[in-house]
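Database export, one record per block. Field names are fixed; values are copied verbatim from the stored entry.
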Amino acid sequence: MNNDITSLTARLLAHRWLPRNDAQVRRALVDEAFRHEIEARLAGVGLELLDNPFAEHVAVGLKIDVHEAVFGGRDYQASTMGLTRDEIALLIVIWALIILPKRERQLGRRTREDDGQNDMFGQEKPIVHGEEVSGAVSEASLLADFGTQLGGRTKIRNFALGKLARLGFIERRGGYIVEGPLLDVLLDYRVLADRIINGTLADVLAAAGRALPSQIDLDEDVLDEIDDAELEARR
């Protein structure tokens, strides 16, 4: 057991994220004692395991009680992985266009090709991860819709998207942007979803002709459904 704990801890530190279907990661998700040891070792160096059961990967991040020690006294970009305000805004737009529709499909137990209308037992299915539920955004369309507001098309194409890809938030494939390992792990759905759907960004996306899921409303029933799905994903 100790060898597996050491190996998984080292791999998490070296790679920053690992797929949740990795054998050792899967053990950490279902074996309470094993996970406790992993979390204890990470906590010893100010880190914690980041696990979102709707995401395809797990990751490591700083514990909140060491944020001040790590970022205190440094400039704004130190606490935002080196991203500028325009790049953060671009990241949030991409998150809204990819993760919000993805989560709606996951909660409805649907894939991108399945509207769920003919599935009487859809809610009994396990949560789906990966490309079956996570869509893509056209780079050309993104630049046309938001290039002016987010620093200019050249800056976005040549710099911002490349930085988001290097950090693990997105992947660029043949002119399309798809979800990277960290997009659904580091950005908190519970915090962002309601603010986006009911906030200013919803108007910005609507003006660009980008429809957001209309059925996601973080009332108590949906929060309970997310909690149930999280418990199911840990089994």
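Remark 1: The chain has eleven helices and six strands.
Remark 2: The mean pLDDT is 83.
End of record.
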